[in-house]
Design a protein that fits this description.
Layout lengths: L18 E5 L3 H13 L3 E5 L2 H10 L5 E5 L7 H11 L4 E6 L2 H4 L8 E4 L4 H18 L9
Parallel strand pairs: 1-2, 1-3, 3-4, 4-5
Helix pairs in contact: 2-3
Length: 146
């Protein structure tokens, strides 16, 4: 069990701080995921919807990863991923889903998939490739001309 404000000893902080735009329409899920990501040492920018997330990405420098829920009203995670790929092609995109069967045909614009309920181990494992990329390729999340 995780206790608020306490990071279990087995959780290792990431050697690279990744700046993450976290999009989820459920506040409790978004807050819990943000807490886990911060425990791992990352910077988290929360957003309650795909539209709000893209607006936040417009005004935020150095975002390395957009991590979005798959099933959301208005704009789903795949739509968010496609928009990010079009405008910010060097920003990594991850999707969090409790319905992997719905994501199967839409996997193309996504670098990372985390299945709900998300554990700290699953997040650490999934992020290892993103952290490696940020370390070796660098941060190039500048918007592309429209």
């Amino acid at each position: 069990m995780l206790i608020r404000g306490h990071r279990p000893e087995w959780i290792e902080r990431s050697p690279t701080i990744v700046k993450i735009l976290l999009i989820d329409d459920h506040a409790m899920v978004r807050d819990a995921l943000a807490r886990m990501l911060r425990w791992l040492g990352h910077t988290v920018l929360p957003a309650p919807s795909g539209q709000a997330g893209l607006a936040r990405l417009e005004t935020s420098d150095g975002v390395d990863l957009v991590l979005t829920d798959f099933q959301m009203p208005g704009m789903n995670g795949v739509e968010v991923a496609k928009a990010v790929r079009t405008r910010w092609p060097h920003v990594h995109v991850g999707i969090i889903t409790g319905a992997p069967e719905l994501l199967a045909e839409h996997r193309d614009p996504v670098d990372l998939v985390i299945f709900k309920p998300a554990s700290l181990e699953a997040i650490q494992e999934g992020f290892s490739q993103i952290v490696h990329s940020v370390n070796h390729i660098g941060r190039t999340g500048a918007p592309q001309p429209s």
